[in-house]
Design a protein that fits this description.
Elements lengths: L2 H8 L1 E6 L2 E4 L5 H20 L18 H15 L1 H9 L9 H23 L23 H10 L25 H15 L8 H11 L1 H4 L25 H10 L14 H12 L6
Antiparallel strand pairs: 1-2
Helix pairs in contact: 4-11, 5-11, 6-11, 7-8, 7-10
């Protein structure tokens, strides 16, 4: 069909550019019907499913479908399926979990999921920690590395204000509170460095030992190996939570540290706490 024939059949839109006229050719019927079908489908979807945004939330839809509700159903189904083994996990003594192959496998698997959801933000996805956040892969524990001790730490946390049973200790700020002069702080810092490495100034180490004996042994012990009942670290093992260089140790003695771990007893179920305690315990540093 020629252009003239199409012009005679459909006419033009009245637009013309340089003598070229725009034909008023209708859309193909298949395309038009598909377009109408999409409109109908869109209206139906908007009526049946949540879709139209409001000031708070969206229209619920006639079917009452909810992605959150769907997720809750799946979570409930999983909890129901695991109810039996979770009850077993809660009922057995903590130290017996590792001896039960199936239960231990479940606990470490579930605990790993709990750890990656709630703990990895501070301790890292691999549990190696960071400055100010303990490495859970080694065998150095401020409050004890038995599964019971780990369970207690997770349940109640450390130095938080929400749990009256939280583990609590406070190192004095020897400099900020004018307990020690700067020369004494310098000496005791060098003494502490000498216990696991090379001091910055070996000449003041003897004086530092005296300062340590007068001010630090009540928590760290005469041998400087620490005291888990107080959360006082071992100063001889070259494992440092905030750094073992002169500046870091000086900052610790001068102003003290006050790391806080939240309590999880009011956020996680007992089964989840036992699971993550088992997971942490078997990472390599549990006792």
């Amino acid at each position: 069909m020629s252009d003239n024939d199409l012009k005679d059949k459909h006419g033009t839109t009245g637009h013309s550019w340089d003598g070229i006229e725009e034909l008023n050719t209708p859309l193909p019927r298949w395309w038009l019907y598909t377009f109408y079908a999409c409109i109908v489908w869109g209206i139906g979807y908007a009526v049946l499913f949540p879709s139209i945004p409001l000031l708070r939330g969206a229209t619920p839809g006639m079917l009452g479908f909810s992605t959150r509700g769907q997720l809750e159903e799946k979570l409930t189904a999983v909890e129901t399926a695991n109810a039996g083994i979770n009850q077993q996990l809660v009922s057995v003594p903590l130290e017996e979990i590792a001896g039960d192959g199936a239960l231990n496998q479940y606990a470490t698997s579930a605990g790993g999921a709990v750890f990656k959801t709630w703990c990895a933000q501070c301790h890292g996805s691999g549990a190696a920690g960071a400055k100010g956040y303990p490495n859970l892969l080694d065998d150095d524990w401020l409050w004890g590395g038995s599964i019971d001790a780990i369970h207690t730490t997770i349940t109640h946390g450390i130095r938080n204000e929400t749990d009256p049973d939280a583990r609590y200790s406070q190192m004095p700020a020897f400099g900020a509170d004018d307990i020690l002069e700067n020369d004494d702080i310098d000496a005791v810092v060098n003494f502490v460095m000498s216990l696991s490495g090379t001091p910055q100034d070996a000449g003041v180490v003897p004086r530092g030992a005296e300062v340590f004996a007068e001010n630090c042994v009540s928590c760290h012990g005469e041998a400087a190996t620490g005291d888990r009942d107080q959360g006082a670290p071992n100063l001889r093992d070259a494992i440092w939570l905030y750094g073992g260089d002169y500046a870091s140790i000086h900052e610790t003695v001068q102003n003290a540290r006050f790391g806080v771990m939240p309590s999880w007893g009011d956020r996680l179920s007992e089964a989840q706490i036992r699971a993550v305690a088992s997971y942490v315990h078997q990472l390599g540093g549990g006792e």
